[in-house]
Design a protein that fits this description.
With 71 residues, this protein is mostly helical. Helices cover 73% and strands 0% of the residues. The chain contains four helices and no strands. The chain has helices at 2-16, 21-29, 33-42, 53-70. The longest helix is centred in the C-terminal third of the chain and has 18 residues, at 53-70. The relative contact order is 0.12.
Amino acid sequence: MKSAWARTFCRLLVQALGLDPASAKDRVAAMTDSEVQSLAGRINSMPAGADSSGVVLLIIVIAVIWWVWKR
């Protein structure tokens, strides 16, 4: 019973982070019981998305393109 609750909890949390319901169900179903328990225990401390280095890189690329365009 605890495992079923943890799987449902993880599936709903993964969906809340932006995954579509079918993918969330498949991903959680592919996990072992220990992986599900671990994820359920630490989901709130995990980052929701990518880190900011991607955003910084994107801004630099856009700035360089704009600078070259205006020259």
